[in-house]
Design brief:
single chain, 321 residues, alpha/beta, Rossmann fold, 2 domains, five-stranded parallel sheet, four-stranded parallel sheet, 11 helices
């Protein structure tokens, strides 16, 4: 694997990354959370959009692998002075860095950067396009919920997952719609018709099913429900439900939670409690939301290791298994 730009990958490759993340996950119980695998490597986190979970977990992942991690934000870089993404990338590469993690509001920016700089690039979210490490950590957390301690080597065959909310603007939904079916899951996209992309009208182009009624999906008792943040900042001037309409039709309210059965609950964060889901749902035993956050560090360690440690003299896992 030279870059991680998309969640579209062969089933075996996805399972391999999830299994490697299981190895990395073990060090979270250690008093000293360090592996020597990326000692001497330098990783730049280049974030042009605000982030808490993704940026922090990439920073922790790099440091736990003993890499030197440098955080660069758009607001504090020469981009704010008009420098292009290409020139920023070439400048960073000229400093001798080994890999770049990039988040951008422009769809396709990580792929362009990968072509320009000749270094491994990880897509940490690009516009409304993709967020592959989020899909991997979602799959990791769900796989552990489904298979328990025997998750290694397992996929998600036959697991029914409903992704609910602002599908049209969600890079998380797009990446999950690519990755989860590759792992054998049955995916349904649920949301208000204005927030379902045209390609999801019958699901044929995405290989998933689309359904405008959350209540019908709940009556089918899915194995997992993934709630998405309503991205108000991307809806200016567009026809979309009001907050009251959204709650009435698509929020996981306490009443819907009671009808949902034993389905596992996921949310990529940040949550809008009371809009996408109730506090009772977010804090229930069925919620894997904090497990997703924990999984983010393990999955991103696995990605950085796969990209940067293959030819490195300190590439041993150092007893992570």
């Amino acid at each position: 694997m030279r870059h991680l730009l998309t969640a579209s990958m062969p089933r075996d490759e996805a399972i391999g990354l999830l299994d490697l993340a299981e190895d990395m996950h073990q060090i979270q119980d250690r008093e000293l959370k360090k592996l020597p695998a990326l000692r001497g490597r330098t990783v730049v986190n280049l974030f042009f959009e605000d982030s808490t979970r993704t940026r922090s977990s990439f920073e922790i992942a790099g440091k736990w692998l003993s890499a030197d991690v440098i955080n660069v934000s758009g607001k504090g870089s020469s981009v704010s002075k008009g420098e292009s993404l290409r020139d920023t990338g070439l400048t960073i590469a000229a400093m001798g860095v080994d890999g770049v993690v990039v988040r951008s509001g422009a769809s396709g920016a990580p792929a362009l950067l990968a072509d320009w700089i000749g270094r491994p690039v990880v897509n940490a979210g690009d516009g409304t396009h993709e967020h592959p490490t989020q899909a991997l950590l979602d799959a990791f957390a769900l796989r552990r919920r489904i298979h328990g301690g025997a998750a290694r080597g397992k996929a998600l065959d036959g697991v029914r997952v409903a992704i609910v909310g602002d599908i049209a603007h969600s890079r998380v939904a797009r990446s999950n719609a690519l990755l989860l079916p590759a792992l054998g899951a049955e995916v349904t996209l649920v949301g208000p018709p204005p927030l379902l992309p045209p390609a999801a009208a019958d699901g044929s182009r995405l290989g998933v099913r689309a359904e405008p009624s959350l209540d019908r999906v709940i009556d089918e008792r899915p194995d997992a429900l993934m709630l998405l943040r309503v991205q108000l900042e991307r809806q200016a001037g567009k026809v979309a439900p009001s907050a009251a309409e959204y709650i009435t039709g698509w929020s996981l309210t306490d009443e819907r939670l009671a009808r949902l059965g034993d389905a596992h609950l996921l949310h990529p964060g940040p949550m809008n409690r009371g809009l996408e889901l109730s506090s009772r749902a977010a804090d229930s035993d069925r919620s894997a939301i904090l497990e997703q956050v924990t999984a983010g560090v393990s999955v991103r360690m696995a990605v950085l290791y796969s990209l940067l440690a293959s030819d490195h003299p300190s590439a041993e896992l150092g007893g992570a298994r």
